[in-house]
Every structure is written in C-alpha cells, then in structure tokens.
Amino acid sequence: MSDVYKLKCEEYETVPRPEFAKIFEGVDASNAFSISVQGNSVGMFTKRLDDVEVIAMVQTIMSSGLDNLEHLDLRYHHIGDAGATALSLLFQDAGDYRCILKSLLLQGNSITEVGAAKLAMNLVFNTTIVELNLNGNPLGNEGGMAVAQMLSKNRTLRKLDIGNTELGTESIIALATVLKSNNVLTSLNIENPRLYSKQEESTHQLAKMMQVNRTLEEINMGKHAVRDHGARIIAQSLLDNTTLTSVNLRCNEIGISGGEALAALLIKGCSVVDLNLASNRIADDGAFAFGAALKSEKAQESLMRLDLSKNGICDDGLVAIAAGMETNSNLSRLALWGNKFDQPSSRKFDDLFASRFQYTGLEADFSTYVVDGEVFIAAVG
User: Which of 241, 237, 189, 235 is nearest to 215 (CA)?
Assistant: First the structure.
C-alpha cells in the first residue's frame, strides 16, 4: 500500500508523509484500521497537512480498495474545502467502493460552508458514521444549514460537534427543529454561535426540542447568550425530558432568577447528572437556591457534577452551598473556583474537606490550606 501512496503523491506533486507511509505499510485488508495524525502533536506542529496531501491520502485509500478504514482523526491541520471534498468521497454511495468509516474528526481546520455541504451531501444516507467533529471550522450559517439537512435524514450519527463554527440563528433553529424528530443523536455541541438578537429565539427553539427529544443525552450550549428568561424556559422543558444527563450552559448571561429556576428543577427532579453553569451571574441569591437544592432528596438521586465557578458568589452564598453539601452524598464533583471566598465559607469547606469529603470522595476545583490560623483557598487542576 505504501507504494500506491508514493505514486499518488507523485501524481499530485506532493511529498509522501512518513506518518501515512507507515500506516499504509501495516494495513491488513482483513482487519479494520484507523488513521490518527493530529496537527497539534509534537511531530506535526510545524508541518501540518494541506488539501493536496489529504487528496493524495484519500486517493490511496480508494484506489487500493481499503474499505476497512474505521476511524480518521485529522484534527488541527490546514485542511480546507478541497480536502473536505476529497474526504466526502469516503462516504459516497457510488460505484463498488464502500468505506466503513465510523468517526471523522476534523476539528480546528479551515473548512467553510462549501466543504461542509460536500460532507453533508454524502453523509445523508451513510449507514456507518457515528461521530462527526467539525469544531473550530468556519462553517458559517450556510454550513450549519447543510449539517441540519443531513441530520434530518441520516440515521446512524450519534455524536455531532459543531461548536465554534460561526453558526447563526437560522442554522441553530434548523438543528433544533430537526432534533425534535431525530431519534439517533445522543451528543450535540453547538457552543459559541454568532447570535446578534437579544430575543433568545434560538434558546426558545432548543428548549422546545429538549421537551420532546427522547435520545439526546448531552448538549453543550455554552456562549449562547442565554439570559434569565431563556434559563427559565430550559428548566421548564427539562422537567419533561428523561434522557438529557449533561447540560452545559457555561459562559452565558444567566442571573439570579435563571439560577433559581435551574435549582428548582433539581429539587423537582430531572435526569440531569452533570450541570455546568460556570461563568454566569447567579450571585448569592442563586447560590442560596443551589444550597437548598443540594439538600433535596430529588437532586441527590441524580445530580453528580455541578459547576458554579466564576459566578460572582460571595461568602454568604458559598456558606449556603457548603451547608447543602453537609448532607449530600451523591455529588462527586463540585467547582466553585473564581467566586469570593471569605473566612466563614473557607472554614466551612475546610471542615468538609477534612471530614465528610474524605468519605464521599468528592472532587473539587479548589482546596483549602491554613496559615497562621486563617483558612485560604487554592485552585486545583
């Protein structure tokens, strides 16, 4: 296979990569194989792949009949639309070639709506793909629309990461609409879209989707400009959801009433195991609500990880959270770094670290230490 690769490199006037040559030398046509060449690795950092090199690789795979490629990881290179178009051929349902590719990881490349449309077109009726990662590519609103259209017909994709891809309101709403009836996808990252309206239209649609979707287990809505009204709608919708276990709402604009609504959700009971509210604005009043939630029976049946770091919580709110942890045995991870600890809350947590947390095995993003009788807080990790 390495000879074929060299010939293809000559044909496309590029230099063979030792990394690919080594992989192709060891390929066994009877066993599934993977290609993992990440551009941010030590060996590739200064010599990342471009489109022509990707085209030569794809042509080697196809001309050699290597339909047993199962996982392809080409994150953090300089792959653009021409490279994405070539990669889309691996999914093309035409001719005698049928690749069994299950995961395609292209995070941190330069694919725009053109390449996204090509990939989406050939993934529509693909029956092997399980994971697609396009995080950090400038897909734009049109690229997001192409992905949404693909998702409306594809019946195998379970994990989709299109965070940080410059999605617009229109494409977010299209994705939310599609996921009302999609019964396959379990994980969705749509972090950091380009939303300019303050009406939270996309949040409304995503909340409606959560209310009726019955397969999604994980959603990342970080940097979505979710405000109190949006947080209340999400909390209400999650009451009817039985599958979402991980909800990431970090880096939004959720204040006191939004925080109270989400804390009330935990008290009423829901399926959420991991709730990330880092870098919001819930302040002390919101922290009081979470302190009460941590004591509640329903929350202790489900919630295992809670992130309230960088939320403008002062000492009184932190004391309330510590009080909630005095009876909570289910939480395994608590993040509070970046809030305003003073001696009362620091002492409360110092006592918990020395006693209860030793037995429950709780992990935190902070620790305590004592100097001259005063308790101080330090970041962990």
Answer: 241
